[in-house]
Amino acid sequence: MKKYLMILNIFIIAVLFTACKTGNKEMTNPLLSESKTPFGVPPFNEIIAAHFLPALDSTITINKLEIEAIIANPEPATFDNTLKVLDLSGKLLDNVSAVFFGLNSADGTDDLQAISGDMRAKLSQHADDISMNGKLFERVKQVYENRGSLNLNTEQLSLLDNYYKMFLRNGVNLPDKEKERLREINLRLTELTTRFDQNLLAETNDFKLIIETQDDLAGLPDDVIAGAASAAKEMGLDGKWVFTTHKPSMIPFLQYSQRKDLRKKIYDAYCNRANNNNEYDNKEIIAEIANLRIEKANLLGFPSFAAYQLDDRMAKTPAAVYELLDNVWEKAIAVAKKERDEMQAIIDAEGGNFRLAAEDWWYYAEKLRKQKYNLDENEVRPYLELNNVVNGVFTVSKKLYGCDFKKITSEFPKPHPLAEVFEVTDADGSHLGILYMDYFTRPTKAQGAWCGSYRKQYRTGKEEIRPVVTIVTNFANPVGDNPVLLSLDEALTLFHEFGHGLHNLLSDVTYKSIAGTSVKRDFVELPSQIMENWATQKEVLQMYARHYKTGEIIPDELIEKLQNAEYFNQGFATVEYVAASYLDMNYHMLTQKEKLDIVRFENEYLQSIGLIHEIVPRYRSTYFKHIWSSGYSAGYYSYIWAEVLDKDAFGAFLDNGLFDKTTADAFRDYILSRGGSMDPMELYIKFRGREPAIEPLLKSRGML
């Protein structure tokens, strides 16, 4: 075996050397060269799009050699010579793919978009080569069948179980003909999901509401108007104002614009993205994805794709998901109808001769909030300046877990020039990881907010590898020298994504495939969602919510208004979310391929569950990125499943103290540091002492 490994290393060196040559000229590919950057972060400032495909080809070749070395080992399969080596393999490949997908999501330039399809296709084919490799599986299977006598620890047993199930769930035992069909399906799904993403980005960037007269700005706050003027200037439309379907632009317009016709125009554009029967239309793509997923599930022995997906999640079955959604829906729709009627009463009192419509909800919700609680969201924004909110998140993290965040202001490789970078250290001063924060919207950035990793935490036996984490949001760009003021929802988003960041940064496991957020999909949102709870606590608000001009701490009167309005608009928020979750499940509960009319399918199902016409699902089919291209297929329910956990878990902090050290240590030890090293419900019970109750969730949404 040692001789084979020596030969393997020679092959790897040869592959890397060959990959760094172009014609007769040698070219250094920074994705393949040993990184000399601080903390070993990717050399972003040296990487160009042309580096990726050659680097991918080379690292796939190397990973194949690594796999062959495992198979060729003449010794009986053991955990160390099979599972441990398998988990450590593909390090170079992981680096290349992590950098590519991180950059492509946050700054998807034309050059990156152009190679995205090839990158994904090659990775899909390589993943199938590994997961359908019968000889490799036989070695894993040998270890799995002997696991009872191997004295493996909990983490090793989890890793072994994950790999064993991965092979089975990816068709390793299928006949060759069915394996080949599964490969075709996987490759086609990769092509379709890539097109879905590209169409959605193009459609989102395509629409512009151009306003040319002051009268059409009626009702809009000054900072919103200034942002629209700045956007117009960047587009060469000086003297005009531009609003887009990017949420930082659209939501304030819907909240404050007095022009119902313009609210409808921008909201219709948002709701019809990739549904305009043009080159960016996603309906046929979705129909094909749905049908291919049915065929894939059937090949693997499952009646539906939902059954296939949920078999490896906390929920286990579609019935368990529907039970939760039904329980919440019944209560939420009643609250939403009450909210609708209250807003209709405002319209009637003002002499409006129309029924509330979906595009009106934000506008009249603001009026209702002011009427019921004397609270205008614009009262809160001056206290939520971006840097203050970031400092608030840092303060909460330090008080809970002892983390420090030191901003690196010297020259340092960054994924985007506007990103900020921090070194994160533990209470004892030891290095925990590097954190990038990329705040502002741009045309090349996907919508929404997310947390990702350019490198995961793990241990090789010789060294501790610490993570490189990125948090990406889509806040409005600063206008001139004016500070960026967040809405309360945007502040909650920052706390949310930071919870994912802590899950990665505080990871303390041996094996990279179970590190950080590598947990079951319906458990991954617990660390993120629980962080939101601190954001609005009075004690915490007084730490970070300071007026951007005066430095004044947010007054008690305003905090009281916020707390009084805690349940405001929760019917709407819950209904739009659960409606989207139902829609996701309904697509993936299909058991037979059929010619899907996407618009008809969506409309008929939403009518069948009793969705009121004044509310549109949080995501309609053609822009439901979560389920068609981002891993949440038959899994969008995960947010509310995890909210049951997070509200119940936060109860421990409410009982013991917001920053009680014993409770925080337990949450770090059993949730944040363990990754996927144990069954998630077992981890939760170790933290809480029992299974979660649903009542805290219902109470938090004003439904008890």
Count of spatially separate domains: 4
Give the overall form: globular
Strand order of the largest sheet: 5-6-7-11-8
Which class do the helix and strand fractions yield? Answer: alpha+beta
Spans of at least 5 consecutive residues whose pLDDT stays below 50 are 22-26
The assembly state of the depicted protein chains is: single chain
Question: What profile does the largest beta sheet have?
Answer: 5 strands, mixed
Query: In the CATH hierarchy, what is the class of the largest domain?
Result: Mainly Alpha
Beta-strand portion reads 5-15%
What's the Cα radius of gyration? Answer: 26 Å
What's the total count of β strands?
Answer: 11
State the share of residues found in helices, binned by percent.
55-70%
Give the overall pLDDT as a whole number. Answer: 95
CATH fold group of the largest domain:
Neurolysin, domain 3
